[in-house]
Specification:
17 helices, Rossmann fold, 464 residues, Helicase, Ruva Protein, domain 3, alpha/beta, two-stranded antiparallel sheet, 5-stranded parallel beta sheet
């Protein structure tokens, strides 16, 4: 039996074995095999659950994962890629930004609203793609009617032709082919047209003096818009801008937002993934005073969501029973056992991610899809410069990045970005004047640009 809400297949990962999921992750993340394996199995288990009998399907809960490791080793990236492979709604939140109920700050339930936002947007984009062609044709027709208004008799003739199926395929009814061709080729883009647009009306009086979070559950401006409504105003636009606006308006008219919201909520409940970063920042037992009280309060507020509860969002109630949670933290000062026991029990799978060594940084520079080296080569190609890195240069870059991580704050693979930026700074600045050149980045080039910085004991003054 299969849950009818989501069907037999739910994205790409539903058809992939855990081994294939790990292989796909290998194209983007170097090392960290235990974390990849744990998340691949957790994702596959969720797909397996959909094929269970009705008596058991609600009893199987997600394998929530706790990832322990320093910054810059791939915790966030692994979770994001897993969500992308499975086409699952994904949000990342920081535990340190939440506060206990009763304190000023962000409520933990806002993470569910954010997940619903992501899921609904995914469904909206999917539905918009299905009506895109029809919306484009309708928008073109409306725009040409504005540019070249016809007399009543001409509109009647066009209507008769439509009824006789005398319209060419791919051309909106009643639109002269020559005019349509000019519009599609951009020959009318410099012309201006008056378009009626919907504008929300808000009161200049702000009855709520306190600041409301943009992603908070209570959207006051949306609430006001629903009461006060909107007005139609006329604006002068360039043809290309007007066409984009009319296409979006036609798409909105062709899709059923109520249906999209409901499908989005179903998707969030059954395949949503929430990544809770910096969970170590709220670890700590109650001491009776200071910030520890709030930390434990946040843990207890998060607990019902992980256990499975109904959260009221602006779209309606959402069940959290089958949302998958992935938490991560460095745990330099605290340790996982400092979390309250109930919360520890909600993360049955724990994996430790290793710090990156010099050899890892060397591989990260070159091996992943769209690696830093490929990115810089592509950026310089835009300026007409052929950029080439020698193996010796890559070894030296990785060596310098590793040294900086050891002598200052260890930020993992992110250190490569700061080192590469410093290395390529002069070339990036002068690139427009060097079109047509071939630039070879060898070991000597790297030493010349970076050795002076490495010699300084307090290198953090130069590189973040």
């Amino acid at each position: 039996m299969v849950n009818n809400k989501i069907g037999k297949k739910s994205g790409l990962a539903g058809e992939m074995t855990p081994r294939e999921i790990v292989a796909s992750l290998d194209a983007y993340i170097i090392g960290q095999e235990s974390a990849k394996k744990a998340l691949a199995v957790a994702l596959r288990d969720r797909q397996r659950r959909l094929h269970l009998c009705p008596d058991m399907i609600d009893e199987v809960h997600p394998r929530n994962v706790l990832m322990i490791g320093p910054t810059g080793v791939g915790k966030t990236e692994i979770s994001k890629r897993i969500a992308a492979f499975s086409e699952s709604p994904f949000v990342k939140v920081e535990a340190s930004k939440f506060t206990e109920v009763g304190y000023v700050g962000k409520d933990v339930e806002s993470m569910i609203t954010s997940l619903c936002d992501a899921a609904i947007e995914m469904i909206r984009i999917e539905k918009s793609g299905q009506v895109e062609k029809r919306a484009q044709e309708n928008a073109e027709k409306r725009l040409l009617e504005m540019l070249f208004p016809r007399k009543k008799s001409q509109r009647k003739t066009a209507l008769n032709k439509t009824e006789d199926n005398g319209i060419e395929k791919g051309r909106p009814s009643g639109i002269p082919e020559a005019r349509l061709k000019e519009l599609r080729e951009g020959k009318l883009d410099n012309r201006e047209v008056e378009v009626e647009v919907q504008e929300k009306v808000y009161s200049s009086y702000d009855p709520l003096p306190m600041e409301i979070e943009e992603d908070s559950d209570f959207q006051f401006k949306d609430f006001l818009g629903g009461i006060i409504g909107s007005r139609t105003v006329k604006r002068q636009m360039k043809v290309d801008e007007a066409l984009r606006y009319l296409v979006s308006e036609e798409e909105a008219n062709l899709i059923d937002m109520d249906e999209i919201v409901q499908q989005g909520l179903d998707k969030a409940e059954l395949s949503g993934i929430i990544f809770i970063d910096e969970i170590d920042k709220i670890a700590g037992r109650e001491s009776g005073h200071g910030p520890d009280v709030s930390r434990e309060g946040v843990q207890r507020d998060i607990l019902p969501i992980l256990e499975g509860s109904t959260v009221n969002t602006r779209y309606g109630p959402v069940q959290t029973d089958h949302i998958m949670f992935v938490a991560a933290g460095a745990f330099h000062v605290s340790k996982p056992s400092d979390l309250i026991p109930e919360l520890q029990g909600r993360f049955p799978v724990r994996v430790e991610l290793a710090s990156l060594e010099e050899a890892d940084l060397r591989i990260i520079l070159e091996k992943p899809k769209n690696s830093l080296i490929r990115q810089y080569e592509a950026l310089m190609e835009v300026e007409g410069i052929e950029l080439e890195f020698t193996p010796g240069a890559l070894n030296k870059i990785a060596h310098y990045a590793w040294i900086v991580n050891q002598t200052s704050e260890n930020i993992g693979a992110r250190r490569l970005i700061t080192v590469m930026d410093k290395l390529m700074e002069d070339l990036s600045f002068s690139a427009p004047e060097r079109r047509g050149e071939h630039v070879l980045v060898d070991e000597e080039f790297v030493v010349d640009k970076l050795s002076g910085l490495i010699k300084d004991e307090n290198i953090s003054r130069y590189i973040l």
